[in-house]
Amino acid sequence: MKPIRHVLCATDLLTTSPDTLETAMALAKNANATLTILHVLAPPVAVSELYLDAVTMDQLQKRARTWALKELQKRSVRANRAHVATSVLLRNGEPAEEIVRTGRATKADLIVTGTHGRRGLPRLFLGSVAQRVAASASCPVVTVRGK
């Protein structure tokens, strides 16, 4: 197996985030690897009954970006306190595609991502980012199920 020098932790910053980060930090620390913490801002979903003008949409996107950067920095500080060298990345786009693209661009040796473990109709409608990442990534993928 190829040595792990760089771990990419893809986080939703919400439900699966704490367990995902803990796992990624432990793997990076044990391998003496660097850790990149990534969050992808998905494009806004259009709802036909709801109209938001361009200015409002822009403000919402700026707020989401500001919040996400703050949350990423909190996680970076936490990893640094655990003696894990980190960097943070914030991308825009479809989450699975951006995670895989970032994994390749950063030459990640391992991707750690959360999963909700959905089954049945919720999985059919919401899909599985983790499954798409595992199917497309050029390196091993560890999935961490949230509580």
How large is the share of residues in beta strands?
15-25%
* Number of helices, counting only DSSP H or I runs of 4 residues or more: 5
Biggest sheet, open or closed, and with what strands and sense? 5 strands, parallel
Q: Which CATH C-level class is it? A: Alpha Beta
Indicate the CATH topology.
Answer: Rossmann fold
Number of domains: 1
On the 0-100 scale, what is the average pLDDT?
87
CATH architecture descriptor text: 3-Layer(aba) Sandwich
What gyration radius follows from the Cα positions, in whole Å? 16 Å
Give the terminus-to-terminus CA distance.
Answer: 30 Å
| N-to-C order of helices and strands | EHEHEHEHHE
Side-by-side strand order of the widest sheet: 3-2-1-4-5
Q: SSE layout and pairings?
A:
Blueprint: E1 6-10, H1 17-31, E2 34-41, H2 54-81, E3 86-92, H3 95-105, E4 110-115, H4 120-126, H5 129-136, E5 141-145
Parallel strand pairs: 1-2, 1-4, 2-3, 4-5
Helix pairs in contact: 3-5
Short description:
The protein has 147 residues and is of the alpha/beta class. The chain has one domain: 3-Layer(aba) Sandwich (Rossmann fold), CATH 3.40.50. The chain is 47% helix and 21% strand.
